[in-house]
Write a structure and sequence with these properties.
By secondary structure, the protein is α+β, with helices and mostly antiparallel strands. The protein has helices spanning about 10-20, 90-105, 115-120, 160-170, 185-190, 235-245, 265-270, 290-300, 345-355, 360-365, 375-385; strands spanning about 1-5, 40-45, 50-65, 70-80, 110, 125, 130-135, 150-155, 200-205, 210-220, 225-235, 255-260, 275-285, 285-290, 305-315, 320-325, 330-335, 340-345, 370. Belongs to the acetyltransferase Eis family.
Length: about 400
């Protein structure tokens, strides 16, 4: 078995192998694979050169706590043909890929896990979470009538791509856990709505000066159900205005808001708390640190303190102990031989990195070992973010 990098000439065989691994066929009308970066792809090939596995990465930016934006490799298209599974191809590709990320100088990588049991083995941990909110329209009265400070314009997806791209880019720079959506994704329709060019109604909110400051992408998915792909807004007031518009739609019985963050205030804004049904609660973005000192010093911090982290990285055969020191919102992280406060796997460090998973939760779960009673609460205070991280982007 050999792992080799791909070039532009490998696109067709890569796509065919990838879809075959997932027992699917490429849809000529879809553009989901048009954003593949073939200089970041890998093929697992047999001795006679036959491709049996794929892995790839996108070049994204990830917003960290403190509104810090860093490059992030987005792992995708990982699959092995059913005829060649359990032979080490997946492990070989993943380790080869991690080495390439480091050669590029990238400090972290991210993915969406199709199966949760696979990716912890390679150092990834769930770091953001998502859920759907289903609102029964006849119970959807607001406890306090939202203030009207702007206007809403109804457009078609085909007529407002530039507005969507601009607003999403403005939003993602302020939300920890959010990924960039490169321009060529929007132009080629490489993704799920509203990136894709599938027909959607778009409600664009404009401020008092007529400048767009939020949007909602939605469609009628079945009789009586209005499904909202996403709501993007610069602040809670705009988000509330868009929610009110959607909940006021005629001839529907429920509105399903997809992929909502854990701090979405909608349930608390309605008179009837039980008008909202929470479902689809799941992990979303998984994070893997590749350079621990650089990653920890890159993000913003909101509490001063010191913490010694003893980190095990079985996937790369590494083990390190680091002194994390935070003063006035900035961190220093250096190797140390001091006694550890916490011992943890690199996958669990990925889970707590963005502030969406409290270290204390993983201590209670037995995943992180706290070496003294104060270590857990100190870690909780240090690793918190200004708001829960959230990722909308599918890749």
């Amino acid at each position: 078995m050999q792992i080799r990098s791909t070039t532009a000439e490998d696109r067709d065989v890569f796509v065919d192998t990838m879809f075959t691994a997932f027992a699917r066929f490429p849809d000529p009308a879809a553009q989901t694979w048009s954003a593949l970066e073939m200089d970041r792809g890998l093929l697992a090939v047999t001795g006679d050169g036959r491709p049996v596995g794929t892995a790839a990465a996108y070049s994204f930016e990830l917003t960290l706590p403190g509104e810090v934006v860093v490059p992030a490799a987005g792992v995708t298209a990982v699959g092995v043909l059913p005829t060649h599974r359990r032979r080490g191809a997946l492990s070989a590709m993943m380790r080869h890929q991690l080495a390439e990320f480091r050669e590029r100088g990238e400090i972290l990588s991210v993915l969406l896990a199709s199966e949760a049991l696979i990716y912890r083995r390679f150092g990834y941990g769930p770091a953001t979470y998502s859920r759907n909110l289903t609102v029964r329209r006849h119970q959807a009265a607001f406890a306090v009538t939202p203030a009207v400070t702007g206007s809403i314009e109804l457009l078609r997806r085909a007529d407002c791509g530039d507005i969507l791209e601009t607003l999403y880019d403005r939003y993602r720079r302020t939300r920890p856990g959010a990924l960039s959506r490169p321009h060529h994704w929007w132009t080629s329709g490489a993704g799920q709505p509203p990136i894709s060019h599938a027909q959607r109604h778009i409600a664009v909110h404009r401020d008092a000066d007529g400048v767009p400051d939020g949007y909602a992408s939605y469609s009628l998915t079945e009789p009586g159900t209005l499904t909202v792909d996403e709501v993007i807004a610069v602040d809670d007031e705009v988000s509330t205005a868009l929610a009110g518009f959607l909940l006021g739609h005629d001839l529907i019985t429920e509105v399903v808001f997809q992929r909502c963050p854990s701090d979405d205030p909608l349930r608390w804004q309605l008179e009837d708390f039980r008008a909202v049904e929470v479902g689809g609660d799941t992990d979303w973005l998984w994070v893997r640190l590749l350079d621990i000192p650089r990653a920890l010093t890159a993000r913003g911090w909101f509490t001063d303190g010191e913490l010694v982290l003893d980190v095990d990285d079985p996937a790369l055969g590494e083990h390190g102990r680091y002194l994390l020191t935070v003063r006035n919102g900035e961190a220093d992280c250096v190797p140390t031989d001091r006694e550890p406060d916490l011992s943890l796997d690199v996958s669990d460090l990925g889970s707590i990195y963005l502030g969406g998973t409290a270290p204390g939760t993983l201590v209670r779960a037995g995943r992180i070992r706290a070496h003294h009673p104060e270590a857990s609460s100190l870690a909780d205070a240090l690793f918190r973010a200004e708001r829960p991280p959230h990722c909308l982007h599918w890749f």
